Amino acid sequence: MVKIAQTRLREDLMIKARQLILSLLVLSIATTAALALTIARSSEDDPQLPRVIVRVSRNLEVAGYVEEEDDTIIVIRKLDDEIVSFSKTRVVSIVRLAVPKPGQSGIVILRNGQRREGIIIEDVFDHVLIEAEGIRAKLLREAVDYVILKPTFQQQYKNWKAAIGPTQHVDHYRLCDWLVNQRKYELARNELVELVKISQMPEAMRLLTIVEAQLALDKGKPKNDDVGDPEFNHRGADPQGGDDPNVGPVDDKDLLPTELLSYEDVNLMRVYEIDFHNPPHLVIGPDTIRKLISTYASNKLIPTGQKRTAMFRADPLDITRLMFELKARDLYQEIKVQTEPYALNMFRRRVHDTWLINNCATSRCHGGIHAGEFFLHRRGHKNERVRYTNFLILERLEIDPDWPLINYEQPMDSLIIQYGLKRSEARKPHPDVRGWKPVFARSNKRMLDDAGRWIRSMLQPRPDYPIEYEPPRLAPDVPKATPSKERISR
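User: That's the sequence. What structure does it adopt?
Assistant: Structure tokens below.
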């Protein structure tokens, strides 16, 4: 009987052991599955994980999360949790989904070549959500090529500060002016105080006065001093010194167009005007080079190995040339052109500041309220934003289809030159208006020669700046400007 009892006890223990092992096995499988599900869900929920769409061919795209990546291979976890790898040299492209910060602006490049600008709300696998002028639009991924995020204010400020040398006072002033236009008055005051202390620059002193007045207004303590620069008042400053800038007599200059290009636009125009035979001074940061390598790693123009590492020590001019060859337009704005390209510098010295402003942009001519269809900005004409805006007006405005304001093929047939000649000498005389006088008299033939030399020095065919700007017109019912037919694509 004892042996029988011992046998039954052993059998019961073995059954319970098997049950325990089976329970543990089931628990282990369930835990593993739950962990995998949690990881998969966290991959979808965590926007910081690198997300990509690999375009393997024209008809095949694979979306997922980057598991591993080096210069030649990318490994991703697909949305169904399958792990796949691709050789970067055998795929068409790799689209990296953007991770916008709240309120961050950007550009959506569509597959048909069009661009949509606005605040990027989200960039996910099946769509891009963008907000423009308060209206949200969902763009399906089938129509979207990729998204370019514009640098945030903090990123722009940091990069700009880092690029300014201790003796580059003009660039420092540009930073201050940009801060004012961004309405970052506290930062602008701090920068201006530092700039005035080390340079005693008159322009910086005037701008500091304006900024301090604006800060006083913001605090409810308006100053009644005359804080305006008579030639160039910044937005937010009251040139009359009153409490309310919207109250007071109307001046003719208050009726004039005020929209100007931004400093970012000015820099971008300089990028497109770079002459590699006579280049300006360029600065390209290491972050931009990393973006260039990451975005275009599969292109054969991007070197590999040690040559790729050497790109960080390369001449910025060589990196710029590479960007142009790749048509990496999404990175052009990150090229900082520190000095003016030769042709634009000649426009400033030989045309704009010499005779265009003094003869054509006067208050009684094309710089006043009776300018008609051809208006030029005069106020603050020494400021580069004003100058580049006027140049873009000359490029884009069409008054007569047969007589462009700037004729790059036949410089002497440019309307700005023809209108400056004596009516008896011009093939297209200036209209007979009261007070008009010819610019190019026999005594200043050099100005005429310089104008022709400037036009011939400009890059041809002309680049098409990706800048949204329409020349102002003070005349009703005039057809809109049309761009020149032949444009170079950089």
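The chain has six domains: 1-46, 51-96, 105-150, 154-249, 281-337, 342-488.
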